[in-house]
């Protein structure tokens, strides 16, 4: 690829992303138990809303509506189509995100796509048709009434808008028709496959242009095929008239569909088919004020009374919320005060324990009456006087050894004193000194 092709590809992808982000997107899902047929109806509606929908959206039993709302924002989802089933009816809700309104419909009748297609002799449905969004056609929605206009606006906003000056006709492959019946007050939902064929020529010529050669064994001249179109099946003989013939402004896909030439637009229903009846319209995501109800009508006094009760409930809710916030603040302050008191008590206790230990701890090597050095000198002097020799090492323990070994364990015991008795002989003196020395060991 060349550099210009790369630039064109990048520009095209950027334009596609911008276009994709500006068009409406839809979530189609169900809530509660719905059954097999309604589940298939949900799948068919996802096919209708393609390509701007979540085709493989997974729904679990424990999911709530808030889960879908939380996911819808980042994904650019603008509408919800929610199906529910009760014992008697099937309901469909259409909601506009994020602030509503919400339209409630009762599905009076429905037909699945497989049933519609199976009833046709030849259906025209292929995968390429679902690569572009369908064309929306509204009929009989110009009737006076707030709920009618709101319905039409909701349906219009669910599908991308069309610019007729920039529209490519080849992108229109499907059509969604919504017809409102003012008598029964029901909305008919139809989904069609769209095909354009040239007019002004016989069916035999069309067959030749489509490269489908009929059986010409009974013809004498090829002009009979061009003029009469014999030996063609009845299913090919579709009626064209003023109701479906138009002049094409562009070249349309298919043989013979040229610009400024007349062609016939033919629709083939591919389903699903639904008959909807509007029940009510409410503000928000189904939690706001009821704007319209088809079965219940209230007077102005009743509406005012409902508004007063709702305002009273809102005020009561705000008051409860305010009291809860005050209680939470008081509990937090009380908890902080108790924590501060506990820290102060711990600090004060540690200070008191530190002061007691400094005052009451005694020096283990300190004697009660006299210094250790003087005591050691007295014992050595006594040994000299009693024995007449210098004391050997180990008989009188040094001061440091007594402090480390025996002084701490014997500091509270009374010490044995040796009276000076010059008349004792040497043996008794040595035994007495040994007993004293052993008491320090």
TrEMBL record:
Listed Polar residues bias regions: 406-415
Gene Ontology terms describing biological process: ribosomal large subunit assembly; rRNA processing
Domain of life of the organism encoding this protein: Eukaryota
GO CC annotation: nucleolus; preribosome, large subunit precursor
Subcellular location: Nucleus, Nucleolus
Family matches, as SUPFAM superfamilies: Class II aaRS ABD-related
Biased composition (Acidic residues): 371-380
GO MF assignments: rRNA binding
SMART domains noted in UniProt: Brix
Span of domain Brix: 24-287
Region (Disordered): 314-441
One Pfam family, short name: Brix
Compositionally biased intervals (Basic and acidic residues): 314-346, 423-434
Record-given protein name: Eukaryotic translation initiation factor 3 subunit G
Organism (species): Sinocyclocheilus anshuiensis
